[in-house]
Specification:
This protein has 137 residues and is mostly helical. It contains 7 helices and no strands.
Length: 137
């Protein structure tokens, strides 16, 4: 009887149950680069949009940013123009929600731009004409 219980104990110790572990696949270098470029476009002007619009703080620096952006006609200008087109065409919401959200809210960015355009009304047609000129679609 004692030999049988010792044998069971030995058998139980020899058996190991392991859970199946999900493995993560790593993206290829090309996929990683593509994702990084897409994030760069999504984050365009994030350092401005992440704070509520303040005339004293944002007006001049954002005007300089737009001047540099709209001077570009190659590289990723098409993707940037598409992103700003999406922002300008986004519907305005009554309750924009929290300021810092990821991914960036197009309607919040639209509200921010509208406040900027109230201070700098000449920039809205300039930005729209740049988008129409550069946008690939």
């Amino acid at each position: 009887m004692q030999d049988e219980s010792a044998q069971r104990a030995t058998i139980d110790l020899d058996r190991v149950d392991r859970r199946t572990v999900a493995t993560w696949t790593n993206p290829t270098l090309g996929e990683h680069v593509q994702q990084a470029l897409e994030k760069r476009v999504q984050r365009v002007a994030w350092n401005f949009f992440k704070h509520p619009y303040d005339t004293d703080r944002h007006r001049q620096p954002f005007a300089r940013f737009l001047a540099a952006l709209t001077a570009g006609r190659r590289g990723h200008s098409g993707e940037m123009a598409r992103r700003f087109g999406l922002i300008l065409d986004a519907p305005m919401r009554a309750d924009p929600g929290p300021v810092r959200v990821w991914p960036p809210s197009l309607s919040q960015n639209h509200q921010w731009l509208s406040a900027f355009f109230a201070d700098e009304p000449d920039w809205k047609p300039k930005l729209r004409s740049w988008i129409a000129e550069v946008r690939p679609d």
